[in-house]
């Protein structure tokens, strides 16, 4: 007599364990929720019964189940669109389409089920899951519910499947075919039979394990069954029975009463396989929800496939190296780092934008370790901060196999075609494709240009209209009657509130209130907002506008800045989300009124339109290094009058995606006295992020210059002092390195010095730099050669950074923002630059007094000075002393959120040199390859 396999009891046990697992997952992953979506087309009674069972069972164990009911008239396209919406819903981990569908028009069920993403196909019907199962790749597929339930029932009997002869009667894709695969990969010898199998009884009678799903009531008789066999009956059929109240009874495909006399174990119908199918549906859903939570941005190791480097000696040009490497398609990289498809918008095949919804999905995920790369005071040639940033990221990712993101700024096309030729790193430590990195990318800089110039146009248009119209005429045009009704728009209501006018009906304003509302009364001499373009053009440094015949007597002098100097770029880099960006763009002060009040873009009514233009630019751009590790390229604020760092959003996203044990390596513009100080005091102040380590890049070349070596000029061969060993120059020049180490230590952050080695450096020179750095406060100093060797050349640096970031963090800001503006400037000058003090010129004093009066005192300071010296004089090298820092002007970027003092002569529009880089840049018309961009 066979023992009955109680599927109902076993399913209950599975559901209880799933309930406990869901509770545990909620504790482990804050905000965890397993989501199941059931799509039903039509209103079949039997389907409603099955769906209600699934909804009830889901609620019992804590799964959030949604029933989407589509009408019978739904087309195949409409059904697939519903499925695609659920695919893109991150709260849904499992999707099933209840079969059969009841439709008025032809619908291919195969097409519909295959529109479900394989990772959400909890019915296990997608061809991808079926294909993986047939290959035995069971760890990477979802098992169909009924076969998985059957396997569980067999295993619960204690029967060892390995080596047994199994027969599967029925070959449907839902039960028979996957069941045979499951038994095969559990090491049974499997025969698949069907209604047309010759000698069907003979084949079945050889089975140690028999699974039946043929769809014919009580077809398999007792004399078909091998004595002692395990029988799993997947059939469910109704047959007439006058003794039953309903007039029928349910039976399986096996004659239960006969079979139980022969078999050792047998499932009843009902109460056998049926309850297990629902239980396995729920298990598949919880499994996928768990995997999604574990894969949420680095909870585990990424499945990152790195790209090999084909190193050559001598090292070829940057563009030759870049074009020799074949990058991964960016959607593949996105999947490797556990981004979801709906979080990534592709811009071609090699770059993409990443949505800010990732931050919401990963809110419970701990941040990775945060590293900023800076440098000593550089030569005009640069010392390789960008190259070190990328090389370190390649070393951490490809050599040490850590989750790592590099975050860098987007280069301006002005220097690209003018003096630089590119800014993607260099040698074997680059961002690729370098042509796309340096040219246009995804259009963020163009969006800033458009938004900035819209503000400029709005300023001059408002001045013009106020000068040519009465208060009443202005009011009628600013608040027009539309369809017989006059009302203020949202942005105008905000202006009324700021003016203290508590009225919402235009007809209620008094003449005095109308005047206050319509008159910005801009003092043209105080306009600080300039037009911009992303090209080096020295002849736009001063221009005259308003010379058209209709603008008589409206001319004024103004200028163009380069786009990356726009305050909108600084806003983009410092914003935390779309709402914050909208507020910052509205707070930007463009001028002062005749009464001395600030005039903002909100007053101009343009800030909402600016946010629309910047809607896509707020999302970071995803690219990759030469070795296939991920890079965020986002924002590119001028490192003189702005803070010179990539965006807060890129860093925040990256820190969540890499996970607790990962790394984010970001770069600060210019030397540590400029970019690093602004990184800490401005960027970290607004982001709330706590850095773990500083990487300070130094070169023997730059140290020799600081030690008194001859002038270094771009485009001119280096004097022999730089190509021959000279330990005296190196030691003297280390005064600059030591001061920059001290500057980093002011903030309580461990410093790792990266000695960026050149071919002309001697071992003695390199080791001297290491010794002096370690003796003067550096956590470590490492010689690296990532330019020539890629990640392998920065492996020791990566190991040192790994150790440094494990040190306790004692991070602190340099000053309290509530201190007076002058005092904050003086603290930076004395502590960071080594000055004896500051001297505010009369214009600067006047501006400081105005900003205090306008309520802008409590903002951080963003010093605008030369990057070629710790002082205000580029010719003063090393660590100069005994100087007073002259402050000629003090300006404000209120939207970005900082005050910027100007020291010396700082140009915001670079010029082209005698021989710009554009001479070398061209395109091969046959291959379309870019030439000369390096």
TrEMBL record:
- This enzyme's EC code(s): 1.5.1.5, 3.5.4.9, 6.3.4.3
Its Gene Ontology molecular function terms?
ATP binding; formate-tetrahydrofolate ligase activity; methenyltetrahydrofolate cyclohydrolase activity; methylenetetrahydrofolate dehydrogenase (NADP+) activity
Q: Does tRNA-binding show up as a keyword for this record?
A: no
* Pathway stated in the Swiss-Prot or TrEMBL entry: One-carbon metabolism; tetrahydrofolate interconversion
**Record's Gene Ontology CC terms?**
cytosol
Tell me a GO biological process for this protein.
purine nucleotide biosynthetic process
Q: Which residues form the Tetrahydrofolate dehydrogenase/cyclohydrolase catalytic domain?
A: 5-123
What chemistry does it catalyse, as a reaction equation? (6S)-5,6,7,8-tetrahydrofolate + formate + ATP = (6R)-10-formyltetrahydrofolate + ADP + phosphate; (6R)-5,10-methenyltetrahydrofolate + H2O = (6R)-10-formyltetrahydrofolate + H(+)
Q: Which residues form the Tetrahydrofolate dehydrogenase/cyclohydrolase NAD(P)-binding domain?
A: 144-291
Which HAMAP family is this protein grouped with?
Answer: FTHFS, THF_DHG_CYH
Query: Quaternary structure per UniProt?
Result: Homodimer.
Q: What is the name listed in the Swiss-Prot or TrEMBL entry for this protein? A: C-1-tetrahydrofolate synthase, cytoplasmic
Q: Taxonomic lineage per UniProt?
A: Eukaryota, Metazoa, Spiralia, Lophotrochozoa, Mollusca
